Amino acid sequence: MRDRWRAVGVLAGALFAVNVVARVIIKLGFDGNDTATDRVSLGMFVVIGTILAVVVFVQGRTRPAGAWGADIGAAVVVALALTVLVGPLLVGDNPVGGGAGLFFAQIWLYLLAAGAGVAIGYLVLTALGLDHRSQQLKRYAETKAAKPRRVVRR
Fold first, then answer.
1. How many Cβ atoms from other residues are within 10 Å of residue 146's Cβ?
2. pTM of the predicted model, to two decimals?
């Protein structure tokens, strides 16, 4: 159980670290340039989605969807809370300084990027037939085909 929470914490920390790096890049290099800020933010969301897609692909091969789904959901919620509430404080901004619209827009964009990453990872995994359920069905079919049918005499 401890290893499971450690993995959730590491994933949440990695997602939060991506956000912190993006905020520092924006603060140091592109402060005041809205176009560059939007591009760095878009890049951050792409990286977050890619990380989640890879994690889903790797975890989905060996674990049922309910198990890895709960872990990834917990990691995304923790990373989202850190990103929205703590991230701005690290670069000297107020978390709700841009108003409620910007605050909730950050939440929706983060959830959209996370959901897209998870969906892409799971769809690729399922399309290739490498997910846990497909592997179980494959093993079941192989064992049933390996045993000859038993003839019952009357």
1. 7
2. 0.84
- Residue 77, pLDDT score: 94
Q: What are phi and psi of 94, to 5 degrees?
A: -95, 130
Would you say 77 and 114 are in contact if contact means Cβ atoms under 8 Å apart?
A: no
Checking if the pLDDT of 86 tops 80, the result is yes
Quick check: 75 and 146 in contact, CB under 8 A? no
Q: How far apart are CA 116 and CA 40, in angstroms?
A: 18
C-alpha to C-alpha distance for 144 and 151, rounded to whole angstroms: 15
Integer Cα distance of 33 and 79 in angstroms: 26
Pinpoint the alpha helices (H) of 1-154.
2-29, 34-62, 65-81, 87-90, 100-127, 132-146
- Residue 143 pLDDT grade (very low, low, confident, very high; cuts 50, 70, 90): confident
Q: For residue 34, what are its two tokens?
A: 């809205």
Please state the length of the chain.
154
The two three-digit tokens of residue 85, written as one number: 């509430």
Contacts of 80 (CB under 8 A, 6+ apart): 107, 110, 111, 114
Residue 11 CB contacts under 8 Å (≥ 6 apart), including other chains: 51, 55, 71, 72, 75, 79
Mean pLDDT of the chain: 87
